[in-house]
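This week, look over our next protein:
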Amino acid sequence: MPDFGGTDTVVATQSLTQTAQEKLRQLVARIERLEEEKKSISDDIKESYAEAKAVGFDSKVLRQVIRIRKQDRQEREEQDQIRELYLHALGEI
């Protein structure tokens, strides 16, 4: 175990009750398991984008579509209106 500052770490560890130590172990194990699941899901998402690209879809635009679909419809419409206003002010549309 790495040293995080000397005797304070040892005293803190010794002062944890058996129940607290077990709860800590459970929490660490749970977090580690969730981190593994997160990595697996992340890999699955990457594969899905690669598959979309392989069949001819633009993965950059697909990511934008996914991001937009996460938004509330009203929020998205407000952002679209503001974006159009800005583009119009810049002479882009």
Observations:
- The first helix runs from residue 7 to 15.
- The helical segments are 7-15, 18-54, 59-70, 73-89.
